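Please produce the structure of this protein holding uridine-5'-diphosphate.
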Amino acid sequence: MRQPQLSVIVPCYNEETVLPALRRRLEAVCRAQTGDAYEVLLVNDGSRDGTWTLVQAIVAENPCFVGVNLSRNLGHQLALTAGLSLSRGDRVLIIDADLQDPPELLPQMMAAMDAGADVVYGQRVAREGESFSKRATAWTFYRLLSLFSEVEIPNDTGDFRLMNRKVVDALSQMPEQHRFIRGMVAWLGFRQVPLGYTREPRAAGSTKYPLRKMARFAADAITGFSISPLRLSSVLAFCCFALTGLVAAYVVYAWFALSVVKGWTSLLLLFLIFSGAQLLVLGVIGEYVGRTYVEAKRRPLFIVDEILTNPAHVREPR
Ligand code: UDP
Ligand code: MG
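Below is the modeled complex.
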């Protein structure tokens, strides 16, 4: 089978109500863009409803569709990872099953890529039909993330994006367990351009991201891209030492000028000095734990976009 021009990855968790509409709309845009040189990977993430039966029927009817059945519910990000590693297309589109991200934006994304982009990511300029609490938590989350994160992760983006093969291959060199894919793609670099769009309401069914899953997702995002929370005790140690200086001055003054209870001066000073020392040691441990954590992720040290040589000089491989 020849290599498809386009792979579309759709994570599906209990999405039987939206799959027929999704299939219709994806088929139309993919066919218009590539003829039949596309593949759609429907990744069933341990659904408990009739999703997999429906996927089997769709694959039987259209050979461009591929069903991937995960062993159990592994979560959105791992379902995407499975899809990415099985995809074969020159370009790869990630899209949610619930049609909140309109498939009809594909031609615009393809055009931006033809113009030189390596990643075209959807950026929500408006969200329709989502509850106030969902919008408020999402807003807070993206602002917190940009405060902590060591790489710039664009605000208000999801995983809805078109990437070329170069980016997908680089992404699969990142073996970390707790995956926050939109952040990992931002970390990679290359030429990334946004495409503003309005996020539509879910076509059918209900959100598969309850508060519990959202909190875990936010923790993966922040800890995956920052070790600054571990530096907190170093910061506190310095505050404590500054405070020790001030209090020491007062205590010495009080010892001379005011009549204080015997022992108060030495107790207070010892307390402040040892609290500061403990915080400092915790901060040092935090630094080492942070470094061990970064090493444990085993991310590639660098990623080469291209190597330019002058054809007059033959560069022997090492
Ligand atoms: N999803 C998944 N596994 C999960 C949770 C969600 O594959 O454990 C899929 C889901 O089917 C959908 C996408 O991830 O295609 C995004 O989920 P959802 O639309 O429920 O999230 P929301 O848009 O409400 O944040
Ligand atoms: Mg959704």
